[in-house]
Amino acid sequence: MEVSIEPSWKTQLDDEFKQPYFNALTSFVKQEYTQNTCYPKGKDIFSAFDHCPFYETKVVIIGQDPYHGPNQANGLCFSVKDGIPHPPSLVNIFKEIKVDMQKPYPESGNLERWADQGVLLLNATLTVRAHEAGSHQKKGWEQFTDGVIKTVSSELEGVVFLLWGGFAKKKSSLIDKSKHHILTSGHPSPLSANRGLWFGNQHFSKTNALLAQMGKEPIDW
């Protein structure tokens, strides 16, 4: 099965693409995209990887599911296409950056600008049926993206993992803490943020401080 993905990732994930589960997943996704409206567009499914080559990965942010409304999902977790209203979690991310980094609230919710600087914006599930949150969960995507996290952990050093909320925090067991950095907090969703579990985590300035300590270029959030 040929997968169209950025070449350095293709090399690293070659074993995953050859697994029986990935063939079954591919068949499922093709059928879903043929029979239903699904997001993101087919060409954007691996967009998080295409914008962030393997050896340039400095930060990993883990999301759960793509947005399931029209024209929202662009293949990067928490990100929406240019000109699309910002979903509540993204609003809270930008509010935290505004305070933490003294940056103005941005017009566009498209986070490709982060990915192009080495931030892997990884959803655990890479596709979804329109208006049905979680509809493509437990079909093999989680196994694939867990494999991605393990590969980053084993093959790279000094990556900063931002784990927001209970779901993402469970992924910490896949990460070698002796050579990577993990920052955790509540999820930026209103439910969590309004309970005081998100705002003030300063993850963006803390990430840049860690990158600077390692001699890496900080992220322009």
Automatic annotation (TrEMBL):
Annotated ranges, domain Uracil-DNA glycosylase-like: 50-211
Entry superkingdom: Bacteria
Biological processes, Gene Ontology terms: base-excision repair, AP site formation via deaminated base removal
MF terms (GO), sorted A to Z: uracil DNA N-glycosylase activity
InterPro entries named among the record's database cross-references: UDG_fam1, Ura-DNA_Glyclase_AS, Uracil-DNA_glycosylase-like, Uracil-DNA_glycosylase-like_sf
Reactions catalysed: Hydrolyzes single-stranded DNA or mismatched double-stranded DNA and polynucleotides, releasing free uracil
Enzyme class: hydrolase
One Pfam family recorded for the sequence: UDG
Keyword terms: Cytoplasm, DNA damage, DNA repair, Hydrolase
Catalytic residue list: 65 (proton acceptor)
A GO cellular-component term linked to this record: cytoplasm
Family that this chain belongs to: Belongs to the uracil-DNA glycosylase (UDG) superfamily. UNG family.
Alphabetized NCBIfam families for the sequence: PRK05254.1-1 (NF003588), PRK05254.1-2 (NF003589), PRK05254.1-4 (NF003591), PRK05254.1-5 (NF003592), ung (TIGR00628)
Functional note: Excises uracil residues from the DNA which can arise as a result of misincorporation of dUMP residues by DNA polymerase or due to deamination of cytosine.
Protein name: Uracil-DNA glycosylase
